[in-house]
Structure formats: structure tokens, C-alpha cells
Amino acid sequence: MDTNRFRVRSRSGLDLDAFDPRDTGTSRGGKKKGLKALRTLTEELVELQRVLWAQHEHRLLVVLQGMDTAGKDGTIRHVFGPMNPQGVRVTSFKVPTPIELDHDYLWRIHPAVPGRGEIGIFNRSHYEDVLVVRVHGLIPEDRWRKRYRHIVEFERMLADEGVTILKFFLNISKEEQKARLQARLDNPSKNWKFSSADLSERKLWPLYREAYAEALARTSTRHAPWYVVPSDRKWYRNLVVATVVRDTLASLGMKYPEPSEDLEGIVVE
Ligand code: ADP
């Protein structure tokens, strides 16, 4: 799969509507083939992460953003779930605590950046500080506007220091969100996920789209690219994310470390 067409290139403007949330590629064989491809990809991912962890050299940061019900949790479960949990660290960024609010907005982000050998997954991220903060007018525009530059520079620093960064916007349609919210009301095993706050956020859909379009355009860089992932079909969403992560890890040229001593002739009694 060529994932280049999902990558955000423009730094000046971005038409999010040009990305179809229902896209499933040229779908030769559709879902059935997609699920089969995902099983193979998963095996490759598990092996790549094994080497990443063993080599203890590279670090991978994966940022997941999307509207409510876009599937951040499901993506983490399906794409990263099969990996060795020792080497995967998921951080979910919620409404900042009073202590976090007493600091700059990147203060709580930096300690969650992965260390050597680790994959760090951000379930929401510092991007909330130019999204929800903008949509709800939590701070004046002249403050959040400066953050695009801070974020580009922060991520550049991380990349310069050896962190590989991938950012995914899980792109669902407004109709699909409606269906998923309704399922949370109708299905007893999903009731726990329902929050009426999601309905008030849904009313702000156009403002969020505008905020996302600008944030993605301004912060998609060579060192930290954004991908707009078609997410109405969960299997295709997983396939796209898994492919980008696989291709990225494979491009690092990782290998198992050499043994620390000569193993020739050693016998285990
Ligand atoms: P999720 O929806 O991610 O499963 P929650 O229902 O707990 O988890 O939602 C987390 C909430 O925290 C979201 O509404 C999100 O917009 C909010 N949030 C995250 N980061 C910030 C931030 N920096 N400022 C304000 N709100 C934030």
C-alpha cells in the first residue's frame, strides 16, 4: 500500500474535505483481504518491535488524534496490542490537572516521550493545546497561535535527538460519529463509553474541523509528518496505521545487538 497519499504536505493550507473518511483504497478483495494483510503486518510489526527493544537505540513516538469515537483506543489495541507491552508506553492526555495548568503546556508532554528501545503512544497529545483550547477559547488567540511554532520546534528537537515521530489524524465522517455515539447508547456493553459531553463537542464539529485543518497544515514536517487516516472503516484504519508504522520501523535498519562476549565454545552444563 502506498501511504504517501495520506501524508499532509502543505504548510500553508489544507482542505480536510479532500480526504474521504470512507476510503478503502482500490479494495481488491476489500475487507477480507485487508484483514489478511493486517495479520501479516502484525507479525512483521511484532518482530520489528522485538529488534527495537533488543537494540535499545531507536525511539518511536506515535501521536493519535481524532474526534470522539474516531477510534484512538481501537487503533492502539489492534495495531500495538500484539507487541511486547514492556516496550510500549501509552499515555492518555486528559483535561490538564491544576498542577499541569501551573506549567507550560509542554511540561506534561516531555516526560512521556519514549526512551531508547521504546514505542511511546500519545492518546491525545500537545495538539489538544491548539484544538480544544482554540475551539473553546480557553486562552486568547495570540497565545495558542504561537504554539504551532513551539510545537514544530519541540518536535524538531526530539527528532534531532533521535526520536522518530509519526502523527495520525483518525478521520471519521460526522455521520459515522453519529452511528458510533448511537451504538454507545443502544449497546449495554458500550454504555460506559457514553458521555453527554461528546454531544456538546459534536455540535462544535465545524470549529474542530477548522482547528484540525490548520494544526495539521502548520505542523506537518519532514521530521514529524501527519497522516490523515480514513477511519470510517475500522479495518482500513488499522491497515493504514500499521503500514506506516511497519514501513517506518523497517526503514531504520535496526538489527539485534552483537553478543557482549565471544559465544564460541560456551557450553551450558
Ligand atoms: P477520551 O475522549 O480521550 O477517551 P476523555 O473522555 O477523558 O478521554 O477525554 C479527555 C478530554 O480531555 C477530552 O475532552 C480532551 O479534549 C480533553 N483535553 C485533553 N487535553 C487537554 C488540554 N490540553 N486542554 C483542555 N482539555 C484537554
Overview of the molecule:
- The protein has a single domain (3-251), classed as Rossmann fold (3-Layer(aba) Sandwich).
- Helices cover 43% and strands 12% of the residues.
- The chain is built from 10 helices and 5 strands.
- It has a 5-stranded parallel sheet with strand order 2-3-1-4-5, sandwiched between helices.
- The termini are far apart.
- Bound molecules: adenosine-5'-diphosphate.
CATH superfamily: P-loop containing nucleotide triphosphate hydrolases
CATH topology: Rossmann fold
Give the name of the CATH architecture. Answer: 3-Layer(aba) Sandwich
What is the overall shape? globular
- Ions, cofactors, ligands: which are bound? adenosine-5'-diphosphate
- Amino- and carboxy-terminal Cα gap: 49 Å
Largest sheet: 5 strands, parallel
Number of helices: 10
Measured by DSSP, the beta-strand proportion falls in 5-15%
Helix content: 40-55%
User: Order of strands side by side in the largest beta sheet?
Assistant: 2-3-1-4-5
Would you state the CATH class? Alpha Beta
Q: Radius of gyration, rounded?
A: 20 Å
Model regions low in confidence, pLDDT < 50 over at least 5 residues:
none
Total number of β-strand segments? 5
Q: Averaging pLDDT over every residue, what do you get? A: 96
Overview features:
globular; 10 helices; Rossmann fold; alpha/beta; binds adenosine-5'-diphosphate; five-stranded parallel beta sheet; 269 residues
Question: What does the secondary structure layout of this molecule look like, with pairings?
Answer:
Blueprint: H1 30-55, E1 59-66, H2 72-80, E2 88-92, H3 98-101, E3 119-123, H4 132-135, H5 141-144, H6 147-160, E4 163-171, H7 174-186, H8 196-203, H9 205-219, E5 226-230, H10 234-251
Parallel strand pairs: 1-3, 1-4, 2-3, 4-5
Helix pairs in contact: 1-10, 2-10
Bound molecules: adenosine-5'-diphosphate.
Adenosine-5'-diphosphate binds at residues 68, 93-96, 124, 128-129, 132-133, 195.
